[in-house]
Amino acid sequence: MSNENFNPLELLRTRFRYPFPTLKNPHADQLQHITETEWIDGEYRWLYQNNPDLRKKYKNTKTAHIAAQWFPTASAERFRPICRLMLWTLYNDDLYEESNPDDIDEVHAQSIAILNGEISVAQSTIPLASMLASLRQELIQFIPQESIIRFSQMISRYFTGLKKELDYKKNKFFPTVMECIALREDSICLYPFLQLTEVETGVILPSEIHEHPVVRRLQALACHLVTFFNEVQSVMKDEATGSIYYNIVKVIQNEHHLSLEEACLEDLRLHNEDLNEFVALQASLPDFGSWHEAVVNWVHYMSMVLSGWKNISTKLDRYNAMAFPQANELKERLSQL
């Protein structure tokens, strides 16, 4: 099958559909201004001090507007740490995209220790230490240490997935489709954001709710759905950066010897399977007793992440091969830190 007339972004717009509401936080512009002036050109300017073009690329990613689709009802104060986390995910992804897998272990360990309040910025050697320390200080205003630890466990899953991705990239080796879905569930870094619904709503759910198999499955499905969408969106970018070894579309192509269009359609089929399961579980949640209404609300917020991601991400330049940091400039910057 020829790919000559195939447009992955058109497939995303027309065939990836979500039966969920799409809302946007009214504080998006305010927090985007903070992101650009206080953070990218302020606290974290030193990261890319001599590269205004790269700083502009990060601004154009509109991280606060992404977060605004995921957390539509958070107050400006509660929205702030969510936006800081969104910027951190971009910085961290880009800084370590070209790293040796073994170099991730120390970054992983220190990041979690800072988030949990176990080490200070002064005791750390990682470039984004102050960003994580600020994030912790903002989060602890709204959620207890137990929730912080749960959140940091989800950040830990992200680093575990990131290291596996780098292993595949270094060895130029494709995982199986099922292995790739499992590692991308972690590396997509959605799990940490799902925990922060507690920041938005002010409702702290007990650990038995978080550990319930249905709640865990719903979160896993949400991660899969964002990933399946993301893989089609970023396939051209990943081809340009050599990151094909952990893009599900490219893994499907490799495993089943399909054209790009056929692989994208298989990705869509897997997406729709998981979407149907998510909708079915959402419609038939078990009885959570006195917490039932809060769980229903959390799943409702989870669903808006899915529709919100489609709404905002199809408008972003980050997936255009000309609008993301080049690997060599990131590698050079990391070597200077």
Automatic annotation (TrEMBL):
<dbReference type="InterPro" id="IPR034686">
    <property type="entry name" value="Terpene_cyclase-like_2"/>
</dbReference>
<protein>
    <recommendedName>
        <fullName>Terpene synthase</fullName>
        <ecNumber>4.2.3.-</ecNumber>
    </recommendedName>
</protein>
<keyword id="KW-0456">Lyase</keyword>
<dbReference type="GO" id="GO:0046872">
    <property type="term" value="F:metal ion binding"/>
</dbReference>
<comment type="similarity">
    <text>Belongs to the terpene synthase family.</text>
</comment>
<dbReference type="InterPro" id="IPR008949">
    <property type="entry name" value="Isoprenoid_synthase_dom_sf"/>
</dbReference>
<dbReference type="Pfam" id="PF19086">
    <property type="entry name" value="Terpene_syn_C_2"/>
</dbReference>
<dbReference type="GO" id="GO:0010333">
    <property type="term" value="F:terpene synthase activity"/>
</dbReference>
<keyword id="KW-0479">Metal-binding</keyword>
<keyword id="KW-0460">Magnesium</keyword>
